[in-house]
From TrEMBL, chains A, B:
SUPFAM superfamilies listed in its UniProt record: Tryptophan synthase beta subunit-like PLP-dependent enzymes (SSF53686)
Gene3D superfamilies, A to Z: 3.40.50.1100
UniProt domain Tryptophan synthase beta chain-like PALP: residue ranges: 5-290
Cross-referenced InterPro entries: Ser/Thr_Dehydratase, TrpB-like_PALP, TrpB-like_PALP_sf
Organism: Rugosimonospora acidiphila
Coiled coil (residue ranges): none
Protein name listed in UniProt: Pyridoxal-phosphate dependent enzyme
C-alpha cells in the first residue's frame, strides 16, 4: 500500500562522521522523497485504508511533517485532507501542506492545542481523525523502517530514534525487539520537550506545561497513554539532549555527511555527542527522519560557530 | 559485483522546485552513499574484475570523486590504490581519498596533467591504469543509473546528465537509447570547461587550453576520442551553462529540495534555468551526481545572494 518512493531508503556507513563521534555510524536516510520525512510511510497506509473503506475526507493535527505526508497521500487518492497546525510551525512545512492541496487550519498555540482542534473538526465534520502515534497505521508505517534495517543484515548494535509522539519509536522498536532483539533501541528527545522520556522513566504519563526546543517535530507536552504502554515494552532507554548538541548534530551532518536535516533528525547525533563513553566503539544507526527546515533558521544553526563539543 | 549500498538510489518528484523552473522535475540522488557520488558504481566493477584477475594494485587520475570511489572499492577487496589528483582539487575530496587508505599523489596542474602522471605511474609500477570514461567498466557502472531510471517506468521525457569525461553521459545515454528511446538525453557542461560539448557539436575532438569553472568534477580539457565516438551515438544534445546558473542551481537544490550538491550536480538545474522555454511543461530527470564540497566554498555559493535568475 505504500508508494515505493518512500521505501528502501538509503542505509550507509558514514565514516567521515566517525572521528568526531568515536563510534561507527550508519545513516538511515528518510529525507530523499517527495515530502522529505519518514511520515508518508504511515500516511500511505492510513489513506489507502480510508479510501478502501469509502472515506472521502480526513483531518489530522500535525507539527508539519505528518500533515504534509497525509496531504500527499490523500491528494493522489482523491481524499480531502484537513491539517490543523500551530501557527508557530516552520513556515516551509505550512507552505508545503498548502501546496499539496490540503486545507490548512492554524491554531494560536502549540501542537497539543492543534490536536484538540483537529478532534473538534473531526467530530463536527463527521470525518476520520488521524492521530499520529495512536493510530496503529502510523506506527506500522514507521515500522517498515525497522524491517529495512533488519533486512540489511545488521552489523549495528544500537539504533537511535527521535522520540516525539512515539510512532517511529514504537514502530521501529517493535520490529527490532521482534526480529533483532540484540540491538539496543534508544529513544532521544530534547531536554526542552521531555514529556515522553520522563513518562518512560517513571512508567506513567508525565505532562509538561510548555516546550522549549528548536526540534519542532518532536515538541509535545501530553504523551498518549497507549503509546507510552507500547514504548515501555520496546524501548531499552530514552535520553534527553541539550539544544546545543542538537545544533552541533545539525552542523556535523552538514559538514561531514553533506546532509540537510531538521533538528529532530539530529537528535541521534546529539545523543552520541553527549554520551561518548556509552557509544565508544559501538556501531550505531541513526534515523535521519526529516529535512523540512526554514532556511533562515537553518542558516543560523549552521553559521553560528564551528563544529564543537556540547 | 556492485555493493548494494550504491544501487537503487532515490528517484522522486520534487514539486517544490517546479514553480521556479516551469517544468516537472524528478531527482535521481547519487549522494546518499559512503562516497557521496555515483562513481562507486563503476569502481565496484573495476575493482571486482581486477581482484578476480589477481591484480594487487591499481592507479587512477581523478578530479576527486573517482579516486574516493576507487579507494573505497579497493580497500574492501585488498587492492592497493594510488590516486593522482590536482593539488587544486577540493580539499575534502583529497582528505577522503587519504582517509580511505589510498596513496594520494598530487600534481601541480589540472586533471589532464594528473592523467598523464597516472599513466606514468602505471607504466613504472606495472599496475593497472584505471581510466575514467575510457574503461568500459566506468561507463557500465554509471549505466546502472540508466537501468534504474528505465525500471521506474518513466513518466519523464528528458534526462539531464552532467558531462565531464563522459562516463555517466555515455553509460546512462546508452541505456536510454536502447530501452527508452523516446527520452531525450541532454548533456550539460560548464561554459568554463566546454571541450567535450564543443567536440560533440563539431563531431571531432576539440581541446581547450584551460578550464575556468567551479564545477571541478567535470573540468577536463582533452576529450578522449573513443568516448566522444560513443557520445555522438547516444546524446541528443549537449549544452553549456554559465557559472551564475550553476550557483543558482546549487542554491535552489538547497532551498527547495534540502540537498547539498557539488557544482557538477547542479548542472541539470542550471540548464533548465537557462532554457526555460525548451523545458516548459516537460518532465525532466536530473541526476544529482555528487555532494563532495569544500564547506567554505559551499557557504560562499549559498550565501552570496537570494535565489534569482541567471
Amino acid at each position: 500500500m505504500i508508494d515505493p518512493t518512500f521505501l528502501d531508503t538509503p542505509l550507509y556507513r558514514c565514516e567521515a562522521l566517525e572521528p568526531d563521534l568515536g563510534c561507527s555510524v550508519s545513516i538511515k536516510l528518510e529525507t530523499a522523497n517527495p515530502v522529505r520525512s519518514f511520515k508518508a510511510r504511515g500516511t500511505e497506509l492510513v489513506a489507502s485504508l480510508l479510501v478502501d473503506n469509502g472515506a472521502r475526507a480526513a483531518v489530522c493535527a500535525s507539527a508539519g511533517n505528518l500533515g504534509q505526508a497525509l496531504a500527499w497521500s490523500g491528494r493522489r487518492r482523491g481524499l480531502d485532507v484537513t491539517v490543523v497546525a500551530s501557527r508557530f510551525a516552520p513556515a516551509t512545512k505550512l507552505h508545503r501542506i498548502r501546496a499539496l492541496d490540503a486545507r490548512l487550519e492554524l491554531v494560536d498555540g502549540d501542537f497539543d492545542l492543534a490536536r484538540e482542534r483537529a478532534a473538534a473538526v473531526a467530530r463536527h465534520d463527521g470525518i476520520r481523525l488521524v492521530e499520529d502515534s495512536l493510530d496503529i497505521e502510523t506506527c506500522e508505517g514507521a515500522a517498515t523502517i525497522g524491517l529495512e534495517l533488519v533486512d540489511a543484515a545488521p552489523s549495528f548494535d544500537t539504533v537511535l530514534i527521535a522520540l516525539g509522539g512515539g510512532a517511529m519509536a514504537t514502530g521501529v522498536g517493535h520490529v527490532m525487539k521482534a526480529l533483532a532483539p540484540d540491538v539496543e533501541v534508544i529513544c532521544v528527545q530534547p531536554l526542552g520537550a521531555p514529556a515522553m522520556t520522563r513518562s518512560w522513566h517513571q512508567r506513567r504519563v508525565v505532562t509538561t506545561e510548555s516546550t522549549n526546543t528548536i526540534a519542532d517535530g518532536v515538541a509535545g507536552r501530553r504523551p498518549i497513554p497507549a503509546v507510552l504502554d507500547d514504548l515501555l515494552v520496546v524501548a531499552d532507554d530514552a535520553v534527553l539532549v541539550q539544544e546545543a548538541s542538537i545544533i552541533n548534530g545539525i552542523r556535523m551532518l552538514l559538514d561531514h555527511a553533506g546532509l540537510v536535516v531538521e533538528p529532530s533528525a539530529a537528535l541521534g547525533i546529539a545523543a552520541i555527542l553527549e554520551n561518548r563513553d556509552r557509544f565508544a566503539g559501538r556501531h550505531v544507526v541513526t534515523i535521519v527522519c526529516g529535512s523540512n527546515v526554514d532556511l533562515d533558521a537553518y542558516h543560523r544553526w549552521i553559521g553560528a560557530a564551528p563544529t564543537g563539543r556540547p
